[in-house]
């Protein structure tokens, strides 16, 4: 039953989710490479009407399942083909994740823990970032969370509440359709560790409907995979296997990193709440050991303290799985963040009730230390930028025009917010009487840093780093007919296909013979390239005329007159050469 307090809390969470996940969602061009590929795959699905086989650049794309592309296609149908529509499913499922977290915790414990857990899940760098990008991860995190919360609710539920167990199987199936086997591996790891630790395997076999649940999982997930196999056969299996088992067994695309890679990713990605996490885990296992020895107080129900154990095993089991995987990226551990938020919310609430709780002051000091480290990192951005400027110019010709030390760039403002914020966290958090204010100081600091990034930093990055080639690709798409050709040379960004809305011929540096072959064909040809690559063009490219220029990128054509579009989806129109 939703009380007035529930409605108020949900309204606050919806408002904050709208502010951090939706405001300015379409104001920045698609980042490369994953956003560009995903957004274009969804666009091509809508254009071709092939709802089974994902494609990129009009060629089969077997790397990911189809669910997110279906969602993007539906979003394009509602909002048009643009950046907002490409990112809308991620923001929508990110918002739904926050609401699900609140509803579960409020029902399982109380409204205050529910609000803490939902705000901690929303106000961190990782979740805000992934919910604002056209990636598969936000949808994956939502369905793996639904699966794992549904499992616990169904296993401990009474009467009709036991039906929640079905969401365990449906959630895994939809997560598998979003990003492949990781969609069922993470929930199964959590389930196995929990049932083993609590010796509840017999209960699960009797009440968890494992056979019918497996049938339901297969019925939801298998049809698309089976259809793909029937259409594409062994070629699909080989590529899908390489992108799943292959990624686990060996690093791909240089994403190996070190064995401890996810430790700083979790500490910084879940900041500021990551400061509470070590002691939250400590108290969880200490409580569990006491309960097994019969020392736990009699008042809480078994299910109450088992929630913390479940979240801890969810976090640790998943963390170990992603750590032993050979391919590591910062967003891979996002499915663990709901568990981290559950643990830290319960620990923080306990600390408000027991001011002398062991480790709480140390946790606050860790939070402050991480905040100061981030502030130092932000303040060092201009120096780091200057050190790597030479290397960036090859990929981003306009990098020299950006001054990261300018007030409108954001790094110094973010550093100052964190310094003031951590001072407030110390003022409130290290005093037992004022401690409750530390939560709002920490959350407010992260919120302000997020708004600085959205309103100041991202627009500047978009202007100089992201938008220039996309604007020229958009201009090429306006002018080229279906039978014409579009070459993308040197800086081969997938997002150019999305903006041109046509097939592109990607030519990396060193493969200029492809340009020669393409130019030998009759008809109109346009070429997009960084200005620094013009000297590398083959002699046959002399027939191409520079027609448009944008921040170090050129658009060449073998016809001198083109239609200059009034404006690309999120930036001013490119200017003719020489203007």
Descriptive notes:
With 579 residues, this protein is mainly alpha-helical. Helices cover 63% and strands 5% of the residues. The chain has helices at residues 4-22, 34-48, 67-79, 83-108, 111-122, 125-131, 137-156, 165-179, 182-198, 201-207, 210-232, 234-249, 262-269, 277-292, 302-324, 337-353, 360-379, 381-395, 411-429, 436-479, 495-500, 513-519; strands spanning 55-56, 59-60, 485-489, 505-507, 525-530, 545-550, 553-557, 575-576. The radius of gyration is 26 Å and the shape is globular. It starts with a helix and ends with a strand.
Quick take:
With 579 residues, this protein is mainly alpha-helical.
Low-confidence parts, pLDDT < 50 over ≥5 residues? none
Percentage of residues in strands: 5-15%
- The whole-number mean of residue pLDDT values reads 91
**Count of separate DSSP helical elements:** 22
Rg (C-alpha, Å): 26 Å
Helix content range: 55-70%
N-to-C series of helices and strands: HHEEHHHHHHHHHHHHHHHHHHEHEHEEEE
How far apart the termini lie comes to 65 Å
Strand order of the largest sheet: 4-3-5-7-6-8
Shape: globular
**Largest sheet geometry:** 6 strands, mixed
Q: What structural class should be given to the helix and strand makeup?
A: mainly alpha
Task: Give me the count of strands.
Answer: 8
């Amino acid at each position: 039953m939703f009380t007035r307090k529930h409605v108020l809390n949900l309204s606050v969470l919806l408002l904050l989710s709208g502010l951090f996940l939706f405001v300015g969602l379409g104001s920045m061009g698609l980042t490369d490479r994953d956003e560009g590929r995903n957004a274009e795959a969804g666009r091509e699905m809508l254009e071709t009407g092939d709802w089974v086989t994902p494609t990129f650049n009009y060629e089969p794309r077997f790397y990911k399942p189809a669910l997110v592309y279906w969602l993007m296609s539906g979003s394009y149908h509602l909002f048009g083909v643009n950046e907002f529509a490409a990112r809308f499913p991620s923001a929508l499922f990110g918002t739904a994740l926050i609401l699900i977290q609140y509803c579960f915790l409020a029902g399982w414990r109380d409204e205050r823990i529910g609000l803490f857990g939902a705000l901690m899940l929303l106000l961190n760098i990782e979740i805000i970032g992934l919910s604002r990008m056209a990636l598969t991860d936000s949808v994956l995190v939502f369905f793996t969370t639904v699966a794992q919360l549904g499992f616990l609710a169904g296993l401990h539920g009474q009467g009709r509440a036991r039906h929640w167990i079905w969401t365990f199987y449906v959630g895994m199936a939809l997560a598998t359709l979003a990003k492949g086997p990781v969609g069922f591996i993470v929930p199964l790891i959590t389930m196995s560790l929990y049932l083993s630790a609590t010796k509840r395997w017999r209960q699960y076999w009797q009440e968890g409907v494992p056979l019918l649940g497996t049938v339901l999982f297969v019925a939801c997930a298998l049809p698309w995979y089976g259809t793909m196999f029937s259409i594409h056969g062994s070629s699909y299996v080989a590529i899908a296997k390489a992108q799943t088992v292959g990624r686990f067994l060996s690093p791909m695309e240089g994403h190996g990193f070190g064995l401890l890679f996810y430790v700083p990713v979790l500490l910084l990605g879940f900041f500021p709440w990551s400061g509470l996490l070590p002691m939250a885990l400590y108290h969880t296992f200490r409580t569990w050991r006491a309960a097994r020895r019969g020392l736990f107080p009699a008042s809480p129900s078994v299910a109450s303290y088992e929630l913390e154990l479940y979240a801890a095993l969810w976090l640790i089991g998943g963390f170990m799985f992603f750590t032993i995987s050979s391919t590591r990226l910062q967003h891979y551990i996002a499915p663990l963040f709901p568990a981290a938020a559950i643990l830290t919310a319960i620990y923080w609430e306990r600390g408000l009730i027991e001011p002398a709780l062991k480790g709480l002051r140390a946790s606050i000091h860790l939070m402050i230390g991480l905040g100061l480290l981030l502030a130092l990192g932000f303040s060092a951005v201009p120096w780091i930028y200057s050190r790597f400027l030479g290397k960036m110019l090859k990929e981003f010709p306009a990098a020299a025009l950006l001054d990261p030390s300018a007030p409108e760039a954001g790094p110094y403002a973010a550093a100052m917010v964190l310094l003031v914020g951590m001072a407030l966290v110390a003022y409130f958090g290290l005093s037992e009487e004022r401690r409750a204010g530390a939560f709002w100081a920490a959350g407010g600091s992260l919120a302000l840093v997020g708004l600085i990034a959205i309103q100041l930093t991202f627009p500047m990055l978009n202007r100089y780093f992201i938008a220039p080639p996309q604007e020229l690709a958009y201009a090429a798409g306006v002018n080229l007919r279906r039978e014409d050709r579009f070459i993308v040379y040197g800086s081969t960004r997938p997002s150019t296909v999305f903006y041109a809305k046509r097939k592109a011929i990607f030519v990396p540096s060193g493969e200029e013979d492809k340009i020669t072959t393409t130019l030998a064909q009759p008809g109109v040809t346009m070429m997009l390239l960084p200005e620094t690559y013009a000297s590398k063009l083959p002699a046959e490219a002399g027939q191409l005329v520079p027609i448009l220029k944008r921040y170090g990128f050129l658009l060449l054509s073998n016809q001198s007159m083109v239609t200059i579009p009034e404006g690309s989806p999120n930036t001013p129109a490119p200017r003719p050469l020489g203007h």
